[in-house]
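Researcher: I'd like a candidate sequence for this fold, 118 residues long. If you have to choose between options at a position, lean toward the conservative one.
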């Protein structure tokens, strides 16, 4: 069976990628790579608009979060990861990549940062 609106005469060529969805639930969705994690309501709004992945940073309604899309430090990174566990959306958190020494940046990666933002 074909989904309504999909032509049985659809041309599949060199620029077409076919994925078997057998046994899976597949959801197409947008990825927002510049999110300021200010409030939990953002995830509901994102899902309602078809966004399934949020990538950015912050630690809630704080001045640093308003200014940048990074989550600073190991403690904040762990708390943001804990807070996002029950939210039904893919989330990634950037750590702060501007530091004069390596240790704080490594600490953020070890705490679960998706990457570091300069």
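Model: Candidate sequence:
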């Amino acid at each position: 069976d074909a989904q309504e609106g999909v032509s049985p005469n659809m041309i599949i060529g060199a620029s077409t990628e076919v994925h078997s969805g057998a046994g899976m639930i597949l959801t197409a969705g947008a990825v927002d790579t510049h999110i300021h994690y200010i409030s939990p309501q953002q995830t509901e709004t994102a899902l309602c608009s078809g966004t399934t992945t949020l990538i950015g940073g912050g630690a809630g309604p704080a001045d640093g979060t308003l200014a940048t899309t990074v989550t600073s430090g190991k403690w904040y990174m762990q708390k943001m990861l804990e807070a996002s566990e029950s939210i039904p959306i893919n989330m990634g958190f950037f750590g702060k990549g501007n530091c004069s020494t390596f240790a704080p940046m490594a600490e953020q990666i070890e705490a679960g940062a998706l990457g570091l933002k300069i």
